User: What shape does this take?
Amino acid sequence: MNRTIFPLLVASSLFAFVGCATTPPPKELVDARAAYTLAQSGPAAKEMPAELEDARKALATAEKAYEDNPSDQETTDLAYVAQRRVLLASARGRAAALEKAKIAADEQFKSTATDKLDQTSAALGAARQNGAMTAQALATEQKARLAAEQKVRDALGRLAALAAIKEDTRGTIITLSGSVLFATDKWELLPGAHERLNQVADALKEDTERPVTVFGFTDAQGTDAHNMTLSEKRAESVRNYLVSRGVDASRVKSEGKGKADPIADNKSPEGRANNRRVEIVLGKAPEHR
Amino acid sequence: MKLIFPMSVLAVSSLLLACGSAPAPTAKVASSEAAVRAAGELNANDIPTAQLHLKLAQDQLDTAKKLIEQGENKRADYVLTRAQADAELAVALAKETAIAKEAETAMAKVRELKAK
Assistant: This one.
């Protein structure tokens, strides 16, 4: 009798045990486990570790209940509550992370705003300073220009005794008589020319910004080619002398005009004498900046 | 006859134990109600994620009250624990949504300022 009963008892108890263990976990427990797995990799792990630990304990309690009484309502309730605890920790973890993001954004806003303000006021300051400098530079330049013009006027005034000076659209024209500067048919300067040209050079040097052109003219006698060559050579002589007196070579050009542009009648000796001449044109200063 | 009296005492006392050992969880009702109210004040009903849990909390709170009326205090206690867990979760979800909006606003302000 005992022999048969014992295996049966063992078998039935085994059956009961297996039956017990295979009771599937309630949906609430499955959900709670999944939620916890997810929460572990979320912000709750960092931001809300204590709450996540509470949730883990709640889940462990539910697991224990499932082990002991798998199909009890209480097991389901514990799993249900555990899942909510896990979700709570997750939500609070996300909220804490968001709060940090908000604070960081606020800080960034403040510092960006401050930077912008600094940039703006720096730009404003620079602009003001620039403006002041520009105004000052302009004023200085204008003053210098006026002073230079005055000096030129003074120098020309002194020169007026020695040469004819007039203004036209080209600028200031200094006219020197050919007979004063050159011997007939020659282009070497006469010694007496030096004194006048020295004064011209001094006047030209007073305003270094105005271009200078030396024009040579002859009367209508002789061949055009000869007159042209002579006027060119004479203009060049004057130019060379002015440069030798310190007028910047790059400012001064020379040009022969031959018998062109007479200022007097070539039929009379006086007229021809007037036409034989050198004109030094002091051009206008280039417009500035 | 001699045996009947002790047996009836046992039966009565076990009955008393079954019912009387679990007092009505009035404190838990109060705290669950408070949690439900808090969730409502945070506009949990306008936030889909929070809305579900607020509804569950409300329903379970109602269920628990009925259970208490029926003397099912032990069961009511569990249902209230569930209700409270749902209500607290609804509160947390509503708060999360609110702070998410604030954070988004703050970040949008920064983007706007930088774009200037």
Observations:
- Chain B is about 85% helix and 0% strand.
- The longest helix of chain B spans residues 73-115.
